[in-house]
Amino acid sequence: MAQRVVVVGGGVVGACCAYELARAGYAVTVLDRGAFGAGCSHANCGYVCPSHVLPFAAPGAIWSTLKTLFQRNSPLKVRPRVALANLRWFLGFARRCNARDMMAAGRAIQALLNSSRGLFDEIIRAERIECEWVSKGLLFVFQTAKHFDHYAHTDELLRREFAMPAKRFDAAALAALEPALRPGMAGGYLYESDAHLRPDRLMSELKRVLIGQGVELREFEAARGFATSNGRATAVLTNKGDISAEYVVVATGAWTPQLNAALGCRVPIQPGKGYSVTMPRPALCPTYPLIFEEHRVAVTPFASGYRIGSTMEFAGYDERLNRNRLSLLTETAKLYLRDPLAEPVQEEWWGWRPMTFDSVPVIDRAPAAPNVFVAAGHNMLGLSMAPATARLVRELIAGVAPHLDPAPYSLARFK
Predict the structure, then answer these.
(1) What are phi and psi of 299, to 5 degrees?
(2) How many CB atoms lie within 10 A of CB 364?
(3) Selection from 159, 180, 138 nearest residue 381 by Cα
(4) C or N: which end of the chain has fewer Cβ atoms within 10 Å?
(5) Is residue 236 part of a domain?
(6) What is the rounded radius of gyration, in angstroms, for the C-alpha atoms of the chain?
(7) Number of domains the chain contains
(8) Side-chain half-sphere of 94: how many Cα atoms within 13 Å?
(9) What is the model's pLDDT at position 413?
C-alpha cells in the first residue's frame, strides 16, 4: 500500500508538492484552511522570473524601510506597530542587509529559480496545462535617466556574479520595442529568460491534474497540529478530525508561524501584503510584462486580461483591502502607459507573501518530527520557486540524492 503524505496548504507550493509526490507513487491528501488556490497564489502578477535573484534584504534596504514609517503612500510600507511587535524579525532583516549575505541569499534563490524555470516547461508540456504561458521575457522600464543609469550597476552585478544577462534598450529603442509606453521613458532592460502565466488558471489546471492523479483535496479544513508516536507524526489534527499520515508537508505560506509550536521551532515569517487589480486588456495593451522599478509596480498582459500589481505592506495579519494601495497601482500605471486602464475592473485583490528576513525559503525537516517537512517562506517568489521546491521536498522524503543542495534552506540557519 502506498505511503500517505498529507500536504498542508493548497497554494502553488503545496499543489506542486502534491504533484511531485503523487507522480512518485505516494498517496496524497491536500488540505487547506480555505479554498484550493485562493490565497497568495490566486492573483499575483504571474512571473516566473530567474532574473529575480537578488534578495529583499540588501545593502540600502534598511534606510528604504525606515523611510516608509513616515511616508504616507510608499510602495514599501511598514506599519510602526508591526515593526515594534516583531522586532526580532526586523532586526534579523537589518543584520542581513550587507553584500556578503546578499550574495549568499542570491545564490540560494537562483538555484531554485533556475531549476523551476526548466521544470515549468516540462510540467506544462507533459500535463497540457492551459495557463496562458508566455516565455518572451520581462521588461524593466525606467522613467528617469538617473535610475536607468544607476541600474547599470545591478545589471553588471547580475551578469558577473549570476550569469544573468539582460538586453539594454535606450529611450528610442525602448519606445520601438514596447509601443504601449508613454513617450519620454529613459530606457529599459529585457530579461529574456523570464516567463509569465495567469496564476488562477495555473491553479485550476493543477487542481485538474491532481484530481486525475488520485490526490484527495480537502478544502476549508485547517490544520491545528500533529498526533505523534515514538517521535514521529502519525496524523494531522484538523478542525474536522484527524488525517493519518506517514509524512506531512507544511506548505502554509504566511500562516506557517501559527504552527510553530507543533513544528518545534520558530519559523520567522512575516506576512507582506501585496495587491493587484485585474481588468480587461486595454486597447493599447503592453506586449511584454513590465516592471516599473522606480515605483515598484508591475503590469502583466494576459491573453484573457490585464493585471497591475505589487507593492509591499507590512501590516500584520490585517485582512482589510487598503484602497490607497490599489490607487497607488493604478496611478503609477498612468505615469508609464499610454492606455493604462480598462473597464470594468474584474477583481481587486490582496494576498500575504510569506517573508523570511533573509529572503530565502525554508525547505527542511521540522525539529518536532523527522517525517514532518516545512516548505514555506518563499517571499515574493512562491510561484517562481514552486516546482523546484516540490522536487526537493520529494527527494528529501524519499531519501534520494537531491537535485539541489538543501543546506541553504535549512531551519538551522535561524538558531
Answers:
(1) -130, 130
(2) 22
(3) 138
(4) N
(5) no
(6) 21
(7) 1
(8) 11
(9) 95
Q: Do the domain assignments include residue 166?
A: yes
CATH code at position 155: 3.30.9.10
Q: Which domain holds residue 280?
A: 70-97+134-193+270-356
Q: What is residue 69's predicted lDDT score, i.e. its pLDDT?
A: 55
pLDDT for res 65: 64
Cβ atoms of 247 and 234 closer than 8 Å: no
Mean pLDDT, consecutive 10-residue stretches, the chain (415 aa), reads 96 98 98 95 97 92 66 79 92 94 98 98 98 98 97 97 97 98 98 98 98 98 96 97 97 97 96 97 98 95 97 92 93 97 97 97 98 98 98 98 98 92
262: phi then psi, degrees, rounded to nearest 5: -70, -30
Single out the residue of 6, 17, 15 nearest to residue 226, CA to CA: 6
In a domain, 276, yes or no: yes
Grid cell digits, residue 87: 522586532
Query: What grid cell was written down for 148?
Result: 536607468
Report which secondary-structure segment, H or E, holds 29: strand 27-31
CA distance 255 to 2: 29
- Give CA separation, 121 vs 108, 203, 211, 322, 404, in Å: 21, 16, 21, 36, 18
Predicted local confidence at residue 68, as pLDDT: 55
* Strand extents, DSSP E, 151-231: 167-170, 187-191, 195-196, 216-218, 223-229
Q: CA–CA separation, 362 vs 364, rounded Å?
A: 6
Is residue 297 situated within a structural domain?
yes
pLDDT of 63 reads: 73
Q: What is the dihedral of CA 36, 40, 44, 50, to 10 degrees?
A: -100
pTM for the complete prediction?
A: 0.96
Cβ(299)–Cβ(334) below 8 Å: no
Residues, the chain, total? 415
Three-state DSSP class for 190? strand
